[in-house]
Amino acid sequence: MNAFLLVKKSFLILTIFILLQSVLMAQTTVKDIDNNIYHTKTIGAQVWMVENLKTTHYRDGTAIPIVTSDGDWGDLKTDAYCDYENKPSNSSVYGKLYNWYAVTNSLNVCPVGWHVPADTEWTTLINYLGGESVAGGKLKEKGITHWLTPNTDATNETGFTALAGGNRSSAGAFFVIRNVGYWWSLNTTDENSASFRSMGFDNSNVSANEIFKTGGLSIRCIKD
C-alpha cells in the first residue's frame, strides 16, 4: 500500500471514530433550555439523568420565578425555584430547589423527551436495585465530598450519583445540605402535600414520604 492510500485510510478511520464518539456523546448527554448539560445512565429499563436539574426556565423558554425571601416562599401557591441558602454556587453542584407547583407546571420543567418521575417509576428503580433498604447505597455518590461522613454503604455502582442537596421548608428555611437528598415525584397525596423520595448520609435506604407543596426539593428527570 502506497503512502497516499495509507494516509487516506488512516484519515477515514479517524473520521469514523470521531463520528462514533459524537453519536455516543449525543446518546449519553442532554441539554436543558439554559444549555446546562446533564449526563445520563441506563439503569434496568429506565434512563435517568445523573445530575439534579439546574434550569431556570421551562422547556419553552418561560422563566421560572426565583424567590429568595423566606416569608414569600412559604406563602406561595404558584411555581418557584431557589438556590440553597440563595447561593448560586450551591446550585452549580447540587442543582436548584423547586416547589411542587414548578414540578407540575404544564410548561414542563424537564427538557423535551424527559419528565419528573412518578412514584411508580421511583419504585421500579428501587425494586430493580433490591429494595428500599439497599437501593440508596447503590445510588449515592461515593465519598464525603458532597455527603457527611460516613455516607453509609455508598457505592454509586449505578452511576446515578445522588447528592445530598438538602431542602427548603414550607416556611422558607434551608436544611440539611450534605446530610439528606430529597427528590420530587409527580404524585400528590392531598390538596396541600405531595410525595418525594430521600436518601441520607447514615444509611443505605431510599425512603418515601410527603411534604407540603410549598417545600423546595431537587428534581431528577427520567427519560420519556
Structure characterization notes:
By secondary structure, the protein is α+β, with helices and mostly antiparallel strands. It has six helices and twelve strands. It has two domains: 1-29; 32-223, no CATH class. It has helices at residues 3-28, 70-74, 88-94, 100-103, 119-128, 132-139, and strands spanning 29-31, 37-43, 46-49, 81-82, 97-98, 114-115, 167-168, 174-175, 180-188, 193-200, 207-212, 222-223. The strands form five sheets. The protein has a three-stranded antiparallel β-sheet with strand order 1-2-3. A three-stranded antiparallel β-sheet has the order 9-10-11. The chain has a two-stranded antiparallel sheet with strand order 4-5. A hairpin with a 6-residue loop joins strand 10 and strand 11. The N and C termini lie far apart (50 Å). It is globular and about 40 Å long.
Portion of residues within helices: 25-40%
Tell me about the biggest sheet?
Answer: 3 strands, antiparallel
Biggest sheet, spatial arrangement of strands: 1-2-3
Helix/strand-derived category reads alpha+beta
Uncertain ranges = 17-26
Determine the mean pLDDT: 90
Give the termini separation. Answer: 50 Å
* SS strand fraction: 15-25%
Helix and strand run? HEEEHEHEHEHHEEEEEE
Count of alpha and pi helical runs: 6
Principal-axis shape = globular
- Alpha carbon gyration radius: 20 Å
Q: Give the beta-strand count.
A: 12
The domain count comes to 2
